What does this fold into?
Amino acid sequence: DARVTQTPRHKVTEMGQEVTMRCQPILGHNTVFWYRQTMMQGLELLAYFRNRAPLDDSGMPKDRFSAEMPDATLATLKIQPSEPRDSAVYFCASGLREPTYEQYFGPGTRLTVT
Amino acid sequence: ELKVEQNPLFLSMQEGKNYTIYCNYSTTSDRLYWYRQDPGKSLESLFVLLSNGAVKQEGRLMASLDTKARLSTLHITAAVHDLSATYFCAVGVSNTGKLIFGQGTTLQVKP
It folds into this structure.
């Protein structure tokens, strides 16, 4: 049963610390997405990749967030320095562009910044 | 800019009743998705609708798409408690793989 995996599942950190979240997409999927979910803003797309190349990161605060895909089996989202307003659940999703563009979501990383 | 609006945002209903959740979007798209999210969990794909007039059914849920009206509906038939969850529609941005999500509709089914 192929699934998207994310680590860590929970992270509590202090303001100013660096946070790295990792995602392993489903094998063979060529698109990867990072979303942030909060009560106030709902689900927001932060960045997405196709064939490991970043296509759109317009939803990401550029000064503190960065997203990379070092290889086809790993996507990372980094926050440096973290702030309390970054507290949210971060989801990774992967998919195939054709034919349906359907996205499959990982379990999420719940981040709390104190 | 593509905007997606769902209504209602909260729905409390009795078991056995029928109801419909609406998803309106602001610009042309030919891809619409419905997801379910249980509290504290991830999003689970329910339906993928890829053409005007598409209708899909799974159990007590039926989704449809009218691209001309820019409207999708998720119809619940004879609701049961297990359907209690938050339901999201998401619309594909043309020529990209991006999805724009609605605010979500929290469904509470009471015995």
Observations:
- The interface with chain A takes residues 31, 33, 35, 41-45, 48, 50, 88, 92, 96-104 of chain B (CB under 8 Å).
- The mean pLDDT of chain B is 94.
- The longest strand of chain B covers residues 85-92.
